[in-house]
Specification:
- It is a single chain.
- By secondary structure, the chain is α/β, with parallel strands linked by helices.
- The chain folds into two domains: about 200 residues, Rossmann fold, CATH 3.40.50.2000; about 160 residues, 3-Layer(aba) Sandwich (Rossmann fold), CATH 3.40.50.
- About 45% of the residues lie in helices and about 15% in strands.
- It is built from 17 helices and 13 strands.
- It has a seven-stranded parallel sheet with strand order 3-2-1-4-5-6-7, sandwiched between helices.
- Helix 6 links the parallel strand 4 and strand 5.
Length: about 375
């Protein structure tokens, strides 16, 4: 049994996948440990268990899976998560992503001592898509979120004002529950400008290979430019996410390679990869928070072309450090890329503005400091 003293500083991070925790929350977990918290990482461990353990954090296998397991399977995973929360005697649970937020908040309601920090990196497919499935699920999920968040002893971290407005105005979430922390931040010493000479300028999209990340639109825009004899190299960087129904198949990616679009696959050295690009593109239609890759690209002083959607608008200031285009408009996307390819000086100036923006508003240190303040705030809430 964990003692009362230990329980008062015990925190669990509930995240569906270990790679996401390591890319977005590992430094936060390490900082929480340095602040005196006992830190558990509750996730599905695949390749990054050693990285978590070597950081001094405790690895706990999660009963949750991103993929649907059927009604009985989902109920069983909620029951197992409840037992894990009870056994862990956590003071705080920091739940990241829609499924952890919903399932974890439900379990936390049955554990009166737990204080909850929920974090959504965007509202995702259900609240941003016009797909029939999304429209059917949206009212039920919205009702569940309102009940769980308003009823929790904790806070909801959102990454952009559009998502806050949606949650407060349309879902009727208590505005006192909501905190704005824009993204996961970036270490500017790691992601920094480098002078890398390439035979052709590199136009890069770095993301999971998903249709709703705009990968298909990027390829279509790139093919328009290739057919117009534009001298550039178009590169996709990112791995397959086969648990996601919108995953692009390896067969399709290989076919695009045959047509002249490079695919570098998943890369661990993203600071070097982004430093090698001349332009970074993300034509997403997905409900983003603040895309981490765009913060990293801006820190590397790269001009950005992105879509006018929630999240992207936070890090890309149109005409200052990049260009914003309409989602799904591949001709406008191609035109924006061409503007930057034809005017390297303008592209460099935009990149410099982007790095200044990150220094002022998006550093990892500022995000961690604000999040640790939220932990202290929720601990003061009355039972």
């Amino acid at each position: 049994m964990i003692s009362q003293k230990e329980n008062s500083r015990r925190i669990a991070y509930l995240v569906t996948e270990d790679w996401y925790f390591c890319s977005h929350r590992l430094t936060l977990g390490i900082s929480a440990k340095k602040r005196g918290y006992d830190v558990d990482v509750v996730t599905r461990f695949n390749r990054h268990r050693d990285q978590v353990v070597s950081a001094g954090l405790r690895d706990v296998d999660s009963p949750l899976r991103r993929t649907r397991m059927g009604p009985l399977g989902e109920l069983l995973s909620i029951w197992r998560l409840y037992r894990l929360y009870r056994k862990g005697q956590y003071k705080i649970v920091h739940q990241v992503g829609m499924k952890p937020v919903v399932y974890g908040s439900l379990c936390a309601l049955a554990c009166p001592r737990i204080r909850v920090v929920n974090a959504l990196g965007g509202l995702g497919f259900v609240f941003t898509s016009n797909d029939l499935r999304a429209r059917i699920i949206r009212p039920l999920l919205g009702l569940a979120l309102r009940w769980l968040i308003n009823g929790s002893k904790g806070k909801l971290i959102l990454q952009n004002p559009d998502d806050i407005e949606y949650c407060v105005q349309r879902l009727r979430v208590d505005p006192e529950k909501v905190v704005l922390i824009r993204g996961a931040g970036v270490n500017m010493d790691t992601y920094r400008p480098e002078d890398i000479e390439t035979a052709l300028p590199i136009v890069m999209l770095a993301s999971r290979m998903l249709w709703n990340k705009g990968v298909g639109d990027f390829v279509e825009a790139a093919m328009l430019l290739i057919r117009s004899k534009v001298q550039a190299r178009f590169v996709l960087v990112g791995g397959l996410d086969e648990d996601n129904p919108l995953c692009i198949s390896e067969v399709q990616l290989r076919a695009w390679q045959e047509a002249g679009i490079d695919w570098w696959g998943n890369r661990a050295d993203m600071a070097s990869v982004l430093a090698s690009a001349n332009i970074v593109v993300l034509p997403t239609t997905y409900g983003e928070g603040v895309p981490k890759v765009l913060i990293e690209a801006a820190s590397c002083a790269k001009p950005i072309v992105a879509t006018k959607v929630a999240g992207c608008k936070e890090i890309v200031r149109d005409g200052e450090n990049g260009i914003l285009v309409k989602p799904g408009d591949t001709e406008e996307l191609a035109g924006a890329i061409l503007v930057l390819l034809n005017d390297p000086q303008k592209a460099r100036q935009m990149g410099q503005h982007g790095r200044t923006l990150v220094r002022n508003e998006f550093t990892e240190a500022s995000v961690i400091s604000r999040t640790l303040e939220v932990y202290e705030d929720v601990q003061s809430l009355q039972a």
